[in-house]
Amino acid sequence: MNVKEQFAERVEIFNDAVRMKKAPKRVPFASNDAFWRYHDLGYKLSEALLDPQSIENAVIDFQKRYDFDLLLDIGDRNPLIMTRSLGNFEYQIDDKNNTLMLEEQCHLKAEDYDKFIKNPVKTLWEEILPRKYSYFKPGMDLPVLQNTLGKFLEYDQSIKKTTQRLIDECGVPEILNTQENGAKIFPAFECLYNFLRGMKGLSGDMRRTPDKVLEFTEVYHQAFIKPIVDNFKKIDEPSTCFTAFTIMLSQNMINRKQFEKFFWPHFKQLADKIVETDGTMFILSEGTTSHITDLLQELPKGHFCFYVESDDIFERRKQLPNLCFWGGLPLSLLSRGTKQECIDHAKRVIDEVGTVGGLILSPEKFTSNPRDCNRENLLAVSEFVRNYK
Amino acid sequence: MLTEEYSELIINPLGYIGNTILPSKFSLNQRANSIENKYKEKKLIMLDLKILSQAMGKLEEDQVMELLKEFAATNPSEAEALDAVAACQAGMGIVGELFETGEYFVGDLIFAGELLTEAINTLKPALGGSGSTIIGTILLGTVHGDLHDIGKNIFRSMSEAAGFEVVDLGIDVAIEEFVAKAQEVKPQIIGMSGVLTLAIDSMKETVEALKAAGINAKIIIGGNPVTKEACEFVGADTFTTNAAEGVKICQDWV
User: Fold this and answer.
1) How far is CA B176 from the centre of its chain?
2) Residue A105 belongs to domain with CATH number
3) Which residue among A96, A206, A372 places its CB closest to the CB of B197?
4) Do B110 and A96 touch (CB under 8 A)?
């Protein structure tokens, strides 16, 4: 099979997996790697993450070694080159453990809600960004600004080049259709939780000033999310693994009532748009979703793929016959099991979870630490999945 | 309240709360009721302890703080303030129960910890620098290589609310630091937390070093990657992914 045929087959099997109308030719196998590849390929993490060429080469070499059908991260998950160029050093690189960590951030103060609600763009530029990026302030030196712009452009071009090399050299499609559907969607409440207030601040805000949190999310949604979602188009000929991508992480931190109040309404709007345009969407939903099962059951079949990280994927299949799942391979097995144990488990997941589509096989947690994965096991699973039909 | 109990309260308020009001077999709610009943008998009710516990359990911050501020304004004695602390602790017990039933989530526990701190701070002037009786000491930390602390902090808040003294070493704690502090404070329990998968190896290394140093404290590990298999691999006494459950285990140990 040549690269173009590989590309076409991958687009097709992803589409079949999510549509859940017929069994795909084979189950798609996706990488869920954060940084383990740098260890596997012999890079020092702190050097690789600050060099666009190393990031690009590592992605391509990793793909060539394991022959995935999709890579969740192609170096765009933690763009340190860009954030550091603006003076943000919150991410800490640990070369010994091959990890990157970030302490909880709080760049929006409780008293900033009103300002943001009144003028989100102004507040973002004048209040929040200068807190997050230490170089970004009035009177910023021109050379610093020039350097930042240069780094941004260099990084952006590198990611585009990596994407194109994956298509041209490896036959691997993009995860979502950025040409037609813009970008990954980070819902308003998720931005508030992950990037602006942090859970400590937000857990208090939801109880002390719930109306302001609601107003904030509505203003944010209208200003930054809705314009992208409104432009979603029906795509007759898919050329990517999914047509859209979003995240759902806060359900692990907030209770069911809060989830329904603060998160679900905007997600439902997004989901409705996906259904309206007959699209498919990957939802990066780390942790558990077991307490919102009934809400997920409402989603129409054939459009949504949820990441199953902590829940039992076999149980979730019984509870959620309407959804495609991403996951299934425990890291404990990939790292410490035998090749045969890994293959046997992969077979069981495919047979029980992905019989009529509905499965993207992938490590159930992202890999980073050298001990998260064993090369021989990953190679064995990759080969098995390609040949198991 | 018996005469001898009353004497004990005056002579040794901390011991009284610990030995009489907070016996280990009592649930926290029962403790609050017990305290309230004793005060009813003496007609000393300035603060409705049951309502305080319930408000704390429901995380009604305004109500909790209003009750406590009114109470603090009456210049309560140290013993009375300790009763209020016990009522807040009972409220934290309710929070733990609601977490276990799935009504509360992690964010609620974070808020509960914050509210408890706020409440205790309000009572501090009346407490005269003392807290309630310590039922045991826990040495706690996020293991080396891991910077996550939300789960650890929740466990700390709930453990303190249950009467433990917690020596928190923070995040990314070196093996040597665990060992040295354990030798210094001689805890009954050592709690190790982690979120990353690498934490399992760090826990194992730390447990081995503790055992090699002759530390014989009970060891509990907690966090996202922790499982029964991981616990056996690490060599810990037990594991949990639920802070409230972890506190219960620790209570059973002391």
Assistant:
1) 26
2) 3.20.20.210
3) A372
4) no
Amino acid at B170: G
- Three-class SS state of A363: strand
Whole-angstrom Cα distance, residue A307 to residue A30? Answer: 11
Assigned token pair, A133: 């990026």
- pLDDT tens digits, residue range A346-361? 999 999 999 899 999 9
The β-bridge relationship of strands A244-247 and A99-102 is: unpaired
Q: Does A95 touch chain B (CB under 8 A)?
A: no
DSSP state, residue A185: B
CB atoms within 10 A of CB A105: 16
Q: What is the ipTM of this complex?
A: 0.88
- Total structural domains in chain A? 1
Closest CB to A332: pick one of B108, B114, B229. B229
Q: Nearest-CA neighbor of A136 among A127, B103, A308, A279?
A: A127
**DSSP letters along B106-133, please?**
HHHHHHHHHHHHHHHHHHHHHHTT--SP
3-state secondary structure B39-100: HHHHCCCCCCHHHHHHHHHCCCHHHHHHHHHHHHHCCCCHHHHHHHHHHHHHHHHHHHHHHH
Band of residue B10 on the pLDDT scale cut at 50, 70, 90:
very low
Instruction: Quickly state the pLDDT bin for B133 (edges 50, 70, 90).
Output: confident
Q: Which residue has the tokens 């709930």?
A: B158
Nearest to B105 among A97, A204, A255 (CB): A255
Q: By residue range, what is the domain housing residue A135?
A: 3-387
Domains of chain B, with CATH numbers? 3-127 (1.10.1240.10), 136-253 (3.40.50.280)
Q: How many CB atoms lie within 10 A of CB A118?
A: 11
Distance CA A101, CA B1 (A): 54
User: Is A236 near chain B, with CB under 8 Å?
Assistant: no
Q: Is A355 on the interface with B (CB under 8 A)?
A: no
